[in-house]
């Protein structure tokens, strides 16, 4: 597996690979601190594409001024080992100045969507995500890019961006990977102490509660949301950011859950903000 640091090297590699008859390139954009959720994305890319690049870049523009950019876990050696073991051919690990050259003044704004769900409580977050993913897709020119359903609002923003900018990349979404007790895998779970780790299960409990009610035939958003709120009420140490039932394409609230509707939660467990979700079957 090769490690490349510049956009020019990544683009040259991708163009050479895509130039080979029948070959395709998959890109797995990440911020590193790779876990089994990322491993699933890399495996899916290795199954679906002839060649796979994994980008590892902790993107400063998607963090707010008081967020965890500085202390975000950076585990480059272990990340490269995992990427290689799961079938990656290239790791793209640029420095900040490679992605944001001095004087950089161009950003991608997906209007409307970027102000909903996580975008509401993290102003500027989705502008940073859309900007860096656009740069990565322009650099790597992949046939397909792989993202986790865990960041469901991010998926909505990126699908819109890829369609609007006619980037031509297929967006593949892979399922949430959970710990045996239900906690959705996240690079931020590392921040949780033992008590918080237990409290964090409230999010997946609310997801399961909603899934069970939907499976039993309940479709009214107000009833489903009230039941999810009741789950959070049992764990007052966890501070809810949002509990929403929305159209997955527009992130606008719905009054009735239908197949494809997104049920999404975000909550603070101590100083750590976690998210979880489920797509109505
Ligand atoms: O999901 C993430 O890890 C990041 O938001 C992404 C898509 C790699 C952009 O920095």
Helices and strands in order:
Layout: E1 2-4, H1 7-18, E2 25-30, H2 36-48, E3 51-56, H3 76-85, E4 90-92, H4 96-99, H5 118-121, H6 125-140, E5 144-148, H7 152-164, E6 170-174, H8 194-199, H9 201-215, H10 221-233, E7 238-246, E8 262-269, E9 272-279
Parallel strand pairs: 1-4, 2-3, 2-5, 3-4, 5-6
Antiparallel strand pairs: 7-8, 8-9
Helix pairs in contact: 1-6, 6-7, 9-10
The structure holds pantoate (PAF).
Write down the domain tally: 2
CA-to-CA gap between the ends? 39 Å
Number of continuous helical runs = 10
What structural class results from the helix and strand content? alpha/beta
Tell me about this structure.
The chain has ten helices and nine strands. The chain is globular. Helix 9 (201-215) packs antiparallel against helix 10. Helix content is 38%, strand content 19%. The strands form two sheets. Strands 1-4-3-2-5-6 form a six-stranded parallel sheet, sandwiched between helices. The chain has a three-stranded antiparallel sheet with strand order 7-8-9. Helix 2 (36-48) links the parallel strand 2 and strand 3 (51-56). It has two domains: 2-174, HUPs (Rossmann fold, 3-Layer(aba) Sandwich), CATH 3.40.50; 187-276, Pantoate--beta-alanine Ligase, Chain: A,domain 2 (2-Layer Sandwich). It has 281 residues and is an alpha/beta fold. The longest helix has 16 residues, at 125-140. It has helices at 7-18, 36-48, 76-85, 96-99, 118-121, 125-140, 152-164, 194-199, 201-215, 221-233, and strands at 2-4, 25-30, 51-56, 90-92, 144-148, 170-174, 238-246, 262-269, 272-279. The protein binds pantoate. Residues 29-31, 59, 62, 129, 132-133, 151, 154 line the site of pantoate.
């Amino acid at each position: 597996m090769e490690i490349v640091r510049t956009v020019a090297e990544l683009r040259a590699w991708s163009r050479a690979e895509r130039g080979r008859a029948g070959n395709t390139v998959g890109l797995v954009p990440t911020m590193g601190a790779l876990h089994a959720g990322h491993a699933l994305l890399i495996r899916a890319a290795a199954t679906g594409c002839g060649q796979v690049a994994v980008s590892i870049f902790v993107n400063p523009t998607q963090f707010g001024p008081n967020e965890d950019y500085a202390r975000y876990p950076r585990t480059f050696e272990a990340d490269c080992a995992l990427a290689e073991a799961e079938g990656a051919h290239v790791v793209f690990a640029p420095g900040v100045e490679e992605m944001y050259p001095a004087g950089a003044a161009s950003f991608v704004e997906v209007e409307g969507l970027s102000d909903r769900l996580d975008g509401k409580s993290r102003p500027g977050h989705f502008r940073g995500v859309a900007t860096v993913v656009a740069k990565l897709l322009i650099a790597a020119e992949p046939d397909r890019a792989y993202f986790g359903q865990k960041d469901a609002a991010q998926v909505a923003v990126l699908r819109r961006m890829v369609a609007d900018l006619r980037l031509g990349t297929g967006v593949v979404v892979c399922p949430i990977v959970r710990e045996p007790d239900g906690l959705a895998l996240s690079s931020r779970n590392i921040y949780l102490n033992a008590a918080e780790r237990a409290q964090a299960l409230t999010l997946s409990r609310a997801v399961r509660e909603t899934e069970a009610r939907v499976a039993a035939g309940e479709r009214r958003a107000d009833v489903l949301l009230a039941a999810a709120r009741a789950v959070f009420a049992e764990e007052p140490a966890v501070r809810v950011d949002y509990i929403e039932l929305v159209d997955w394409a527009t992130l606008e609230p719905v009054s009735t859950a239908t197949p494809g509707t997104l049920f999404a939660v975000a909550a603070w467990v101590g100083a750590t903000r976690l998210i979880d979700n489920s797509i109505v079957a």
